[in-house]
């Protein structure tokens, strides 16, 4: 070969089209790769949320069956609504107490040792007045 002869990619005019093609492929490929990655991540998060929601619903149904329905079925006295439903025969929990108990059950924590919540007079014993408390 002669020393003055340029071949293939040695000439500057031939390098530029290859460089442009590489840049364009990179600019197109990067968003596609990010989209595919985010799609997989979104699917994983949605599956996790669905599983956790299913577990929450199962815990809620189990708690309600074990604590609320059992108190009503075994009650030999009229059913009452109260925050201390476990100690009162035939009592069922107030909506706020039910929410707290389900939250504790789902999170796996035990009731706090703080002072018990006090309710206005008449709220803890009568289902007809419980809605206004």
Q: Give the CA-based shape.
A: rod-shaped
Spatially, the strands of the biggest sheet line up as 1-2
| Quaternary | single chain
Distance between the termini: 99 Å
Low-confidence stretches: none
The secondary-structure class comes to mainly alpha
Tell how many strands the DSSP assignment holds.
2
Q: Report the radius of gyration as a whole number of Å.
A: 34 Å
**Beta-strand percentage range:** under 5%
Order of helices and strands: HEEHH
Q: What is the overall number of helices? A: 3
Count of folded domains: 1
Q: Main traits of this protein?
A:
133 residues, mainly alpha, 5% strand, rod-shaped
What does this structure look like?
It contains 3 helices and 2 strands, in the order αββαα. It has 133 residues and is mainly α. The protein has one domain. Strands 1-2 form a two-stranded parallel ribbon. The radius of gyration is 34 Å and the shape is rod-shaped. The chain starts with 11 loop residues before the first helix and ends with a helix. The model has no long low-confidence stretch (mean pLDDT 76).
Draw up the topology in text.
Blueprint: H1 12-73, E1 80-82, E2 91-93, H2 95-107, H3 127-130
Parallel strand pairs: 1-2
Short description:
By secondary structure, this protein is mainly alpha-helical. Helix content is about 60%, strand content about 5%. The chain has helices spanning about 10-75, 95-105, 125-130; strands at about 80, 90-95.
């Amino acid at each position: 070969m002669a020393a003055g002869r340029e071949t293939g990619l040695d000439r500057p005019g031939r390098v530029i089209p290859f460089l442009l093609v590489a840049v364009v492929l990179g600019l197109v490929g990067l968003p596609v790769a990010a989209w595919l990655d985010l799609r997989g991540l979104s699917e994983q998060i949605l599956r996790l949320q669905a599983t956790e929601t299913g577990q929450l619903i199962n815990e809620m149904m189990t708690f309600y069956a074990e604590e609320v329905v059992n108190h009503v079925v075994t009650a030999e006295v009229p059913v009452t609504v109260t925050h201390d439903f476990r100690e009162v025969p035939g009592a069922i929990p107030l909506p706020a107490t039910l929410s707290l108990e389900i939250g504790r059950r789902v999170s796996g924590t035990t009731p706090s040792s703080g002072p018990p919540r006090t309710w206005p007079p008449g709220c803890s014993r009568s289902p007809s007045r419980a809605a206004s408390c």
